[in-house]
Amino acid sequence: MNMNNPYMMEAINEAKKAFELGEVPVGAVIVCDGKIISRAHNLRETSSQAIAHAEILAIQEACSILGSWRLDDCDLYVTLEPCPMCAGAIINARIKSVYYGAYDPKGGACGSVVDLFKKGSFNHSPVLYAGIMEEECESLLKSFFESLRRLSE
Q1: pTM of the model
Q2: I need a labelling partner for 108 at 20 to 30 A (CA). Which of 6, 24, 42, 85 fits?
Q3: Residue 144: CB partners within 8 Å, gap ≥ 6?
Q4: Among candidates 139, 114, 117, 113, which has minimal Cα distance to 126?
Q5: pLDDT of 82-115, one tens digit each?
Q6: Which residues belong to the active site?
Q7: Which residues on neighbouring strands pair with residue 129, listed in sequence order?
Q8: What is the DSSP string of 55-96?
């Protein structure tokens, strides 16, 4: 599924901000009632915080904006398949749907390595849409890691 999606475009714009900071380029936006209510990008290196993933930061902001830890009317758009930590946060926040771009064969928790969203595994399972604008999301990640390799040569 590679259709253009305006919300995924916004997540890609967030990923580009991470790239400019020297962070792994992952971006996320949370949508409620057709409106983006939060946006974030990876900040692990910048903040020296292991949990500063785009999804976690976007979830925290959305909770603050809505005044609730329950995001059950919200959709998450993220450029990379969520890791186990982020998948856990998504489940706990009760996010309705997750749309992601690139698959993560080394750490993805939505089917690539494990599937934490499998129906019946936990008390909540978001609806999952994979491969949204996959080529654009994957290209950004490849460019980032290629630039890191060039720097280390």
Answers
A1: 0.95
A2: 6
A3: 19, 24, 25
A4: 117
A5: 999 999 999 999 999 999 999 999 999 999 999 9
A6: 55
A7: 99
A8: HHHHHHHHHHHHTSS--TTEEEEEEE---HHHHHHHHHHT-S
